[in-house]
Design a protein that fits this description.
alpha+beta; 35% helix; 5-stranded antiparallel sheet; flat; SH3 type barrels
Length: 150
């Protein structure tokens, strides 16, 4: 079987193509994809796994006397902790037994130092009585604004 030189030449030209990509652009593409993956990991995957770890640790650290909130919005005090169940007291004499995984979070009492501002840092002297922020000033304004233009 013999082929004409034109058919052979056109077949070779159609099947043999030189690669047109350079190694620099493929390296840049790989780096770009790596950066995108890193950003997705740092912004979405890692925070979610850390939150799941904190929730798991909270559930494992439950002890009688803890105040908790269930996923259904029920507040209660932990009375008994079993392997997969928690008994809560929601009101005096009312007990609920719930699955441990339904506990959404522990209720932690706020630190009084965080709630009550430090009087000295607010510019008031704790030993001297001063004007209350609720009483109007001489010009009829309220609060710490001691006159001045508005």
């Amino acid at each position: 079987m013999s082929f004409s030189p034109i058919v052979v030449t056109s077949f070779v030209a159609a099947t043999s193509k030189k690669p047109t990509t350079s190694s620099g652009s493929s390296f840049a593409t790989i780096v770009f994809l790596g950066v995108i993956f890193l950003l997705v990991y740092l912004m979405f995957i890692r925070p979610r796994s850390m939150a799941a770890r904190r929730q798991r640790d909270t559930l494992m650290d439950l002890t009688p006397g803890d105040e908790v909130l269930t996923g259904a919005g029920i507040y209660g005090k932990v009375l008994d902790v079993e392997a997969d169940r928690v008994t809560l007291e929601t009101a005096p004499g009312t007990r609920l037994t719930v699955v441990r995984s339904t506990i959404a979070r522990k209720i932690v009492a706020p630190d009084l130092h965080d709630v009550i501002p430090d009087l000295e840092s607010a510019g008031h002297d704790a030993d001297e009585p001063g004007e209350s922020d609720d009483e109007p000033n001489a010009d009829g304004s309220h609060g710490a604004d001691q006159g001045g233009s508005r």
